[in-house]
Amino acid sequence: MSVITRFAPSPTGRLHVGNIRAAIHNWLFARKNGGRFMLRIDDTDRARSEEGFVEAIRADLAWLGLSPDSEVRQSARFALYEAALERLHAAGRVYPAYETAQELELKRKVALGRGLPPVYDRAALALSDADRESLEAEGRSPHWRFKLDHGAPITWDDLVRGPQRFDPALLSDPVIRREDGSWLYMLPSVVDDVDMGVTHVVRGEDHVANTAVQVQMFAALGAASPAFAHEALLVGAEGKLSKRMGSLDLDALRAEGIEPLALLAKLARIGTSLAVEPVDSPEPLVAGFDFATFGRAPARFDVEELKGLNARIVHQLPYGSVAARLPEGMSDADWQAIRPNLKSVAEAADWWAILHGHVEAPAAPEDRDLIAAAAEAMEGLDWSGTPWADLVAGLKASTGRAGKALFLPLRRALTGRDSGPEMAAMLPLIGRDEAASRLRAALR
RNA sequence: GGCCCCUUCGUCUAAUGGUUAGGACACCGCCCUUUCACGGCGGCGAUACGGGUUCGAAUCCCGUAGGGGUCACCA
Fold first, then answer.
1. A375-408 b/e (C-beta count within 10 Å ≥ 16 → b)
2. DSSP string, A109-151
C-alpha cells in the first residue's frame, strides 16, 4: 500500500512555524516512502476563510519546495459530507440538538464549577418527538451531533505517542453540522481522509482528542482508520507558547534572510534525536526521517538558533543556486570571497557595493603614515600573484606594524568596515586602480 | 477541575536495570588566518525533588513540584 499524507490548513491566516512543521513532516514521510503528499484546504468555515490566505499557503509551500501532488478544497466537496451524514443518520449515529451556544456555555461553566469535565450532557438525546416539535414551533432549528459509542474504550497505536486509550464517556458528542447547514471540521476531515485514501495522518498533539472521536467516525462510516502520528507542539524560546511564535510567519522569516533549506532543516529535526545541521538539499532530511526519533515533550523553537543554522547554510550555497538573487554582474569569484561572511544572501549586495562601488573612509591621524605607504606600494605589487600578502609583508617591514595595528586601518581604508571577508580574497576583486584611489581618498 | 502527554548538560536529545551518562547546537579555549569573521581541534556542562523495589535505578513503582495539550455550533 502506498503512503498518502496530507497537509490540511484552514485558510484563516498565514502559515507559521507550527503548522509548517507538520507540513514538512507529512512531506518528508511521503517522500521517504515513495508516496504522495496532498494539500487539502480546510475551508468549511466560509466566514473566516479568505482566498488570499489560500494563495499565500500555496506560495509558502512552493517557496519551501514542498509541492503537493494534488490539492482539494473542502468547500467543493459538501455533497460528500451530505452523503456521509445521511449514512450516519441511517445508522443512528447522529442526532439533532437544540441548545444555543449560550446555553451550552452555561452548562460548561456549571460543570467546571462542580469540578466535573465539561462534557455535553446529551440532553437532546432524551427529547421526545413532541419535545422537538414544540422546540421547532418556537422557531428553533437543530444542529447535529455525532453520537459516540460509549461501549468500549477508543484505542489506536500512535506512531509518536505509542498506544493510546480514551474513555468515550469523557468526550462530548461533537457537533458536526450547524443549524444553518454549514459543516464543522470533525466529519469533513474524516470523509476526505477516506475519500483521498490518506494512509497516515501527521499532525500536532492538539488533535489527539479529536482523533479519538474521529476513530469512531471512520468505523461508523465503515472505513479503516489511517495511522496517526501526533507530534509534540513547539513552544517559544521563553518556554511558554508565546505570542511571538504567532508572529513567526514565513514573511517574517524571509525578511530575516532565512533560506527555505534552513527552515526545512530546522523544522524537520527540532524535537527529534537527529542533529539539526546544515544540509545542501532536502535529501538527507528525507533519508533520515523516522517517527521513532520524535520526542514526546514540547520542544523550544528559537529564532536565533535558526539564524545560526541559516548562516552556516549560506556559507556553503553554490553560486549557481543563488546567482539569480545576487546583484547584477556579481561573479562566482565575488560570491566565493564574500560567502563565508554572510548571515543571509541579501547581505551580498552590501559587499558587492563595497567591492565594486565607492568607498571613502578617512584614516585616523595615527594611521595616515601606514595608509600613505600602502598607497605608495600599490603600483609595484604583482596583481597576478598574491598582492595582499605582498603588500602586508612590505608594510610590516617598512612600518614595523603587525597584527591588528596593521590590518584594521587597511581594512577600514579599503572597505570602510571593521570586519568582513578575507582581505586576501577581496583585494584582487577590488583591483589595483580602485584600491589605490581608496587609499588616497582615505588621506584626504 | 477531569482526562492525556512530558521532565537527562543553557537548548534539542541518546542511553529499552550494570555506560567514565553519548551526540548536536550554543558557550569557552586553542589552532589557522600577519585583524574580525569563516574553517579545524579541544573543553566546560545534565539525570526536577522525595520516597520505595533491587546486589545495582536516568531507566521500574508511588508521591510532590513544574511544563504542554484538551475538554468549542475554531481548525
1. bebbeebeeeeebbeebbebbeeeeebeeeebee
2. HHHHHTT-------GGGG--HHHHHHHHHTT---EEEE---TT
- Those nucleotides of strand B lying less than 7 Å from any protein Cβ are 1-8, 11-14, 22-26, 33-39, 67-75
For A4 and B9, how far is CA from C1' in angstroms?
39
Q: Give the containing element (helix H, strand E) for A28.
A: helix A17-32
pTM above the 0.90 mark?
A: yes
Q: Using one digit for the tens of pLDDT, what is the confidence trace for A185-243?
A: 999 999 999 999 999 999 999 999 999 999 999 999 999 999 999 999 998 876 555 54
Measured CA to C1', what is the nucleotide nearest A184?
A: B73
Would you state the cell numbers that stand for residue A113, as one nine-digit string? 464549577
Measure, in angstroms, how far nucleotide B62 C1' is from residue A12 CA. 46
Q: Which nucleotide is nearest to A396 (CA to C1')?
A: B34
Q: Is 60 exceeded by the pLDDT of residue A104?
A: yes
